[in-house]
Amino acid sequence: MTENLNQFSEVLDNEGEAPEAEVYSRRGRAKVEEAPIQGWLLNLSEFEKPLDWEKVFGNRNPVEVEIGCGTGLFLAAYAKDHPELNLVGLDKVAGIVLRTAQKLRKRQLNHVRVLRFEALYFLEEYIAPESLNAVHCYYSDPWPKRSHHRRRVWQPPFLKAAHRSLKPGGLLYMKTDVTDYFEAIQKAFGQCSELFECVEQHRLDEVPLPGDYDSNFQQKARVKGHPLYYQIWRKR
């Protein structure tokens, strides 16, 4: 078994079994089958903690992170429009990460890296204080059952980790299509009111925002008539 998170040395078209890789979380290591792919996956074993972005990307451009990048529709579109940025996308589903990496490779978006990792652990353990310009987290799992609410991303520990990771004045972007979750998110920010201030708020289902990036999930939510809550919070 390979010890590296993303030890991919062959192109996706190669046949044969995919090597095993590992994902790290608070519960320890978990094996997952990964398909081989070239250079868009961030191999954490190659770098010391916290990450030195100049070593990761080979430049000193500003860095932004997307939590829950899904199939990478937003990440790829945003990257195309912002070649002056370095971008990192995280997701917990191995197949999704690989499809996103395929998309990035096809479009030759060389200033983007993706990885399979737990968001809170990544922010706390691998991100240096005040090293990110922005964190994006769109339509994260609302975990509707009350017994599962503790699994939600948008909670005070995540806000504190994001605040620590962001540069002064850094931005935290949020979208959800679940009213109950939106209200819970407002409560979480209320508990951390000394950390962030809301600088922008929209209902994208009522008034589309010029320049907004539609993900696959947002497109489906719009068709279903869901409310589309969008907020931008700035680090105090």
How do you describe this structure in short?
With 236 residues, the protein is an alpha/beta fold. It contains 7 helices and 9 strands; from the N terminus they run E-E-H-E-H-E-H-E-H-E-H-E-H-E-H-E.
Q: What does this 3D model show about the protein?
A:
The chain is α/β, with parallel strands linked by helices and 236 residues long. It has 7 helices and 9 strands, in the order ββαβαβαβαβαβαβαβ. The strands form 2 sheets. Strands 5-4-3-6-7-9-8 form a 7-stranded mixed β-sheet, with helices on both faces. The protein is globular and about 40 Å long. The model is unreliable at 1-36 (pLDDT under 50).
Task: Please describe the topology of this protein.
Elements: E1 20-25, E2 28-33, H1 53-57, E3 63-67, H2 73-81, E4 86-91, H3 94-106, E5 112-116, H4 119-126, E6 132-138, H5 156-165, E7 166-176, H6 179-191, E8 196-203, H7 216-223, E9 229-235
Parallel strand pairs: 3-4, 3-6, 4-5, 6-7
Antiparallel strand pairs: 1-2, 7-9, 8-9
Helix pairs in contact: 4-5
The share of residues in extended strands comes to 25-35%
Measured distance between first and last alpha carbons:
45 Å
Determine Rg (CA atoms, Å).
Answer: 18 Å
Order of helices and strands: EEHEHEHEHEHEHEHE
The number of distinct helices, counting runs of at least 4 residues, comes to 7
Which term fits the overall shape? globular
Structural class, by secondary structure, is alpha/beta
Number of strands: 9
Largest sheet: 7 strands, mixed
Strand order of the largest sheet: 5-4-3-6-7-9-8
Return the average pLDDT rounded to an integer: 87
Catalogue the unreliable spans. 1-36
Helix percent band: 25-40%
